[in-house]
Each structure stands twice: as C-alpha cells, then as structure tokens.
Design goal:
The complex is a heterodimer of chains A (577) and B (232). Chain A has helices at residues 13-75, 93-105, 135-140, 145-150, 162-174, 219-231, 239-242, 295-302, 311-368, 375-406, 419-436, 455-472, 506-509, 528-538, 568-571; strands spanning 114-121, 126-130, 184-190, 193-203, 209-217, 251-256, 262-265, 275-279, 288-293, 415-418, 440-445, 450-453, 478-487, 490-496, 542-547, 554-561. Chain A has 577 residues and is an alpha+beta fold. In chain A, helix 1 crosses helix 6 (219-231), helix 11 runs parallel beside helix 12 and helix 12 (455-472) runs antiparallel to helix 14 (528-538). Chain B is 44% helix and 20% strand. Chain B has helices at residues 12-24, 35-45, 61-70, 86-95, 107-131, 160-170, 179-187, 196-209; strands at 4-8, 28-32, 49-52, 77-81, 99-102, 135-137, 140-143, 148-151, 154-156, 177-178, 219-222, 226-229. Classes of the chains: A alpha+beta (577), B alpha/beta (232).
Chain lengths: 577, 232
C-alpha cells in the first residue's frame, strides 16, 4: 500500500523561525554599526594623535631653533660682530672665555657641553685650545652649582691631536657661512669620532674671515642636553593636551644630522610610533628632529579621544543571539518533525484501523445478508474476518504498549518461559496473515532455551517482528525465525526477511516511534519496532537489526536474559517497572 | 445492457469480496491491483464505472484519476479509500471523482451509490444520444435520438442488442473492435453468452442493412481481429 506522508500542522513555526532569523540579522546589523562607528571614531582619534605628534614636532623644532640660537649668541657675544682691522689680531681668548663663563652662569640659555673651546686664527693657522671651566674652578669663580653640573662629565680635557686640529680647521674652512649668519653648528668627523662644532667666524673690516671661535662637543651629549632642555619648555604641547603631565613622559625624540646620521634617541623611542620630522634652522646646524608620542602617552592622551570599544560586548551579544536562535530553531525543527511524525502516525493508525475494519464489515455484512454464492465463499469471508480481527488486535496492543511506555505505570510479569513452544504458538497465530501475503515461515528453534520474560510481551515482540518482515519483504518470501543460546546467560531470537535490507543511519532510526521505512510501499504506523525495543529493554535485553546471514534482507534480533541465570529480573528493576 | 465495473484496489480480499457482491447485483466486474494495471484495463475494457482506491503501490489513485481525466475519459469514478480527511476528499473531487466513500463502508450503501452513479451516467448518455445528430453509411441512416434506422428511407426493425452493436461499431469511427471487447461492451461480463453471439448478431445486421449481405460493404470482418464499420 503506497503511502504519501501527510503534512504536519506547522502553523506559526515558519513565522517564528523567520522572526528569529530577523532578530539575528538585526543583532548582526547592530554589531556592524557599532564596529563601524567605533572604527570611524578611532580613525578620528588616530588622526588627532597624529596631529599632536606633528604639532609637537613643529614646536620642538621651532623652540630648538630659538634655544640653540640664544645659546650660541650668548656664547659668542663678545666675538660676534667685533670687526678687527685688516691683518689685525683676533679678539683675545679672554673675551671668548668671558662668554663661556657667562653662558655657564647666566641661566639664560642652553649651556654648551663642550669638550673644549678653541680660537682659530685662519691667517696663521694657529688653533688655541681653551679648556672648559672645571667644576671646582667654576665653583671658585662663582659659577652656579646647577650649571657646574652640566659640565660634570666634561672636567677632564683631552687635548686634540694634530690630526684632530687639522680636521677642525678643515671643517670650518669648508663650511662658509652665508652673509647675515654669525654662527652655526657643524657636524663633522674630528679624528676618529663624529663631533659637533659650534663656530662663530670673526671677520676683519674688509669682511674677510680672519678667524673663528668655537667649541667641540660630542653630538649625542649636545643633542641630549638640547632635548632635555626642550622637554622642560611649557609650549611644546598645550597644557590642555598635556594636562600637566611632564613632556618627557609623553614625547620621545630622535635627533639626526642633516645627512641622516642618528646622533641621539631619547628613552622610549621605537619604530612604528606616531611621529613627524622637522629640520632646524641653519644656525642650529640643520639638525633633523623626529618627535613621536610615547606608546604610554597614546593611552593617556587618547583617553576620551579614543572611545573604548564596545564591539566585544556587541559581538558577545551577537554570538548569544546566534546561539539562542540556533537552539530555538533546532527545537522548532524537532517539534516540527515530531508533529509531522505524529500527524503521519495519526494518518497511519487511521488507515491501519480502517483497512481491516472495512474488510470485517464487508465480509460480516456479506455473511449477514446472505450474499455468498457458495460454501467456499462463506468460509473465505469468515477467515478474512478472523484474520483482520487479529491484525486489529495486534495494532491495538502496540498502540497501548506504546502509550504505557510513555507512562510506565503498567508492569510486566516476567516468568520462566520455555521459548520454543511459545514461539511456535506465536508463529501459528501469525500463519493466516503470512498465507495471505504468500509468505512461508521457517522456524529453527533450540528446544532447550528458556527466558525470564513476560509471556504477552514475548508474543507481542515476535508478532511485531514477523509483521515487520511481512510488510517490508516481497511476496512469496521466506521468513526465518531462529532461537539460539547466544551466550551462557543470553538467549537470542532472530527474524530474517528477504526484503531490500536496511543500511546506514536507518538501522538506528527505525527503532524510534512513528518512523516507518521510507523506501517501501508498505503499511504500518511506525510503532511495532519501537515497542519491540521498549519491551526488550524493560527485560534487560536488547534489540537491533543487521544484515541477514546470506546478505539478502534484514535480520532483526532480540536478546533476552536466559532463565538459567537466577535473579536477573530482580537485579534489573526496569524489567518489572 | 449489463454494466461493467472495474475495481482498482491493492487489497485482494477486499477487492474480491466487493466484486462478489457486485456480481450478485448483476454487474460485470474486473479487478486491477495497482494503478498502472488499472489504467491498462480501463483502456481495454471501457467499463461503465471505476471503483478506485487512493493508496496504491506505484501510481496512486489521484494520479490514475488525473491521467484518465486528462485523456478525456468521462467514466464515472467512485473513490473508495481509508483517507478520511476533508482535503483528501476535496482533492479527489477536484481530480474528477464522482463520489467518495471512506472505509469502512456499509455494503448496501456502497451498492446503492454504484447504482446511482450508473443511473446518472446512463441518463447523461441518453441525453447525449438524443441530441446526437443522425449519421449515414451507404444507404443506411441511423437516428440515435429515436433509435430509428432507415435503409433507403424505409424503417428497419433492429433488436436492442443489434442496435447496441451497431452503435458500438459506429463509436469506434472505423477502428477495429475485437469480439471479446464487443461481447463485454454490449452484453457485459456476467452475461451468459458465447463468442459466436457477436458473429450471429453481425450476420443479422448485415442481413438487415447491407445491400448484399454475402459481400458486405460497410460491416466488415477484420481477419483474426474482429469487426469494423466502414462509413463510406
């Protein structure tokens, strides 16, 4: 009998599922919106921080220009602008020393960390070395103690070698200053080291360079002092931005010569920071300063500028929504499937009841109304009535058993049962149905096997397996019932059919309630096998399906505890529940 | 004329039980156990009524019904099924069913419905016949509305079976009709006839209608097949 599955009532489920998907999509949109907004605000904040770095670089360069210029102007104030007569002597070294001492004590400009000072007479090539003021000498001459500290590591003066002297003279000669510029810084190699030379040429009344005054210092020390001085300047960054924080805790700098040789990097410098570069004026030697926001400053300055990201919260919400949606959809699907199976079951049971009832009524009325034409027809009608009544009884028992399984209040009464006679009785009762289906039943029964089992349950299990074999196997097939002692404590009943077999997941699925073989044109309401497994389990046994021994058809197997082992039932409360 | 009924039902016991009861009523009954065979028997036997189960192996009852209606077959169809849902019934009627009976059913009610369906079908057929225009072949004129037959304008007295036989041949529009086919159609399955009955009646028709019954020009024998009516 072909069966078309009825459609389960699923009103509202697609709508609910659709609603959940919509909720999930809205949550996804919100997350995207939050992420997008956060990203754009972060971009703005990034640009703001980059602007801070650019501003700090610009202000550092400009203030550095002023600082260096003021420092050099103070240092060279006695010698700059003093025109000497043509071929006249240069200003005396004492004049320059006065400027040196003034710079060291005035607290008005950046002190010079000179290794030594010099006075160069370009005409004669004489280079006079002037040592920096010593700490004790400075103290004795009234130098401010704070300033003396600036020279602390410059106390020991190593007189320049001849080669260094030549290098100094050559460097000064090669750096002609343009008109209007009275002093500058020169970066050059002096001997084997890089040095910064501060130099102020002295011209005669004809405008020709007669000589120069200056100093030689280590570039790193000079740059370090310069940067440290700058970081104390209040206008490097506006107070509104620094909020009173020390500049050196916010900025870091890299100083290099105009040709790109690094001379100094302050602490906290690393690649990849938000930075900008600016060059100092010619008077300050054209130094290049690269200023960056320190990594920890980004967090400080960015506070309020970079919004705290809520994306993790939104993503968490999205995941939660997705999870809930998935769970609800899964439950809906299960509910839908169950509803479909139940609806299918109702249709199946309806059909299973109506078909035998139709035959019983037809042949009953035929007999009652005397509408048979021969004795053979009368007997045939009576046989059909009996057979179909038995089929109905089995269906009713299965349905009731299933109902009990869902509410296990009705107990079984296991007892010792000699299985061979019991199975023969069941098979005999099934013969009319088998004959109607043109099926032959063969029994191979171990006469010694006995089991602890409820008699009616045993009958129902075997009848269901026989009925299943009949429904899903071909006409004229042979159904083989085998009883054997599988293990010392277990007896095994198997029913083999010659149907198409069951493979893959179907082998487990068919034991679920309401599930019927999809590939067969067969009757059934999907309860028979579920009842078999339920009853087997309640007897501490089990039921499964495998391929029949000759590879053709299926073998359904029930294993039950053998009656030779005492106390099995008592030990298994579920068997008597 | 005995009405013939085809039962398409896969439950053999039910089909036979029903067939026995219908035969007692005087109907000729044939059984098919699946949809495909049902359609084959329908084409070959041209029954007066079809009793059709819906849940059939292979081709289900709806498809059988749809196919025969698509082919222009207007045989009355009574659906006999365990499907009791309203939508099943509605679908059945939409597909072209004339009646719908659910299992289990009362035997006498079913027989009553069968009679009613056949009566309605006959009434409709008669109405069509009455409005059917006269047709001619050779010097013979047949008026279906009045069952009158004229040869060269003079009325000829045909017996009912002879008239039915003539009409059965005419409705095939020149195609061959087998003896068994004619036997079932004109006399019905249950009729106590032998195959010579057709031949005898053909002989009678020739004698009454042909100019030279020994050399018939219209009611022709097709060797080993049956008979056909040559209209001109």
């Amino acid at each position: 009998m072909a069966r078309s599955r009825s459609t389960a009532p699923a009103t509202g489920i697609p709508a609910l599922a659709g609603l959940l998907v919509v909720v999930f999509c809205i949550a996804g949109l919100l997350v995207y919106e939050a992420w997008s907004t956060g990203r754009s605000r972060r971009d703005i904040a990034e640009r703001g921080l980059q602007d801070y770095a650019a501003y700090a670089t610009w202000s550092t360069a400009r203030i550095a220009d002023a600082t260096v210029t003021a420092s050099l102007a103070t240092l060279f104030r006695g010698v700059v602008g003093a025109r000497i007569p043509v071929n006249g002597p240069l200003s005396p070294a004492s004049t320059f020393e006065e400027g040196i001492r003034y710079l060291a004590t005035c607290d008005c400009a950046l002190p010079v960390p000179a290794s030594y000072y010099f006075r160069l007479d370009s005409r004669s090539g004489d280079l006079t070395i002037i040592p920096p003021p010593r700490t004790d000498a400075a103290a004795a001459s009234g130098f401010a103690s704070a300033k003396v500290g600036s020279f602390a590591d410059q106390e020991v003066v190593v007189a320049p070698t001849v080669r260094e002297r030549q290098d100094i003279i050559a460097s000064i000669a090669s750096h002609a200053l343009p008109q209007g510029l009275n002093f500058t810084l020169i970066f050059a190699r002096i001997g084997d080291s890089s040095r910064v030379i501060g130099v102020a040429p002295q011209r005669d009344s004809s405008g020709a360079t007669a000589g120069a005054f200056g100093f030689v210092a280590e570039p790193e020390v000079y740059a370090k002092n310069l940067i440290n001085q700058l970081w104390r300047h209040p206008q490097i960054l506006p107070l509104a931005i620094t909020r009173g924080l020390p500049i050196d805790s916010l900025l870091t700098a890299l100083v290099s010569t105009p040709d790109g040789n690094e001379v100094y990097r302050s602490s906290g410098w690393s690649a990849g920071l938000r930075s900008d570069t600016a060059s100092l004026a010619r008077a300050a030697g054209g130094l290049r300063v690269r200023v960056a926001l320190r990594p920890d400053a980004v967090a400080r300055l960015g506070k309020g500028l970079i919004p705290s990201s809520r994306v993790p919260v939104w993503v968490g919400l999205l995941l939660l929504t997705g999870l809930l949606t998935a769970i609800i959809l899964r439950n809906l699907q299960r509910e839908h499937e169950l509803a479909r199976l139940r609806a299918d079951f109702t249709t199946s049971v309806s059909h299973e009841l109506r078909t035998p009832l139709a035959q019983i009524l037809l042949f009953g009325e035929t007999l009652t109304l005397g509408r048979t034409r021969s004795e053979t027809e009368r007997v045939r009608a009576a046989e059909v009535i009996v057979r179909e009544a038995r089929r109905l009884m089995q269906l009713v028992e299965n349905t009731l058993q299933f109902s009990r399984a869902e509410r296990p209040v009705v107990g079984l009464s296991p007892e010792r049962v000699e299985l061979a006679p019991a199975l023969r009785e069941v098979i005999a009762g099934f013969e009319p149905l088998a004959e109607a289906g043109g099926v032959n039943i063969v029994a191979d029964l171990d006469e010694t096997s006995a089991a602890i089992v409820d008699r009616s349950a045993l009958r129902q299990m075997v009848l269901n397996l026989l009925d299943n074999a009949l429904k899903y196997g071909p006409r004229e097939q042979t159904i083989t019932v085998t009883l054997s002692a599988a293990q010392p404590m277990v007896v095994r009943i198997s029913v083999d059919d010659e149907g198409p077999g069951i493979f893959g997941r179907s082998r487990e699925d068919i034991w679920a309630p309401f599930v019927r073989g999809e590939s067969f044109d067969s009757t059934g309401c999907g309860l028979g096998l579920a009842v078999v497994r339920e009853l087997a389990t309640r007897h501490s046994g089990k039921a499964w399906v495998e391929t029949a021994p000759d590879g053709r058809g299926s073998r359904f197997v029930i294993e039950l505890p053998s009656a030779t082992v005492h106390g099995v039932v008592d030990a298994a409360p579920s068997a008597v529940a | 004329m005995t009405s013939r009924i085809l039962i398409v039902e896969d439950n053999d016991d039910l089909a036979r039980g029903l067939a026995n009861n219908l035969e007692i009523e005087g109907f000729g009954v044939e059984i098919a156990h699946d949809g495909m065979r049902g359609l084959e028997r329908l084409r070959a036997s041209r029954p007066d009524l079809l009793i059709l189960d819906l849940m059939l192996p292979g081709m289900d009852g709806y498809r059988v019904l749809g196919t025969l209606r698509d082919n222009g077959d207007d045989v009355p169809v009574l659906i006999l099924t365990a499907r009791t849902e309203e939508n099943d019934k509605v679908r059945g009627f939409r597909e072209g069913a004339d009646d719908y009976v659910t299992k289990p059913f009362g035997l006498l009610e079913l027989i009553g419905r069968v009679h009613a369906l056949l009566r309605r079908a006959k009434t409709a057929r008669d109405r069509i016949e009455r409005t059917e225009p006269p047709f001619k072949f050779g010097n013979v004129e047949v008026v279906p509305g009045t069952h009158d037959v004229f040869v060269d304008g003079a009325p000829v007295n045909l017996r009912p079976k002879e008239y039915d036989l003539l009409l059965a041949l005419f409705r095939r529009r020149g195609s061959v009709a087998g003896r068994i086919e004619l036997l079932r159609e004109v006399w019905g399955y249950g009729a106590d006839v032998v195959s010579r009955t057709v031949d005898t009646h053909i002989g009678e028709l020739r004698r009454k209608l042909e100019v030279d019954p020994a050399e018939p020009q219209h009611i022709l024998t097709v060797r080993k097949s049956g008979y056909r009516l040559q209209l001109d």
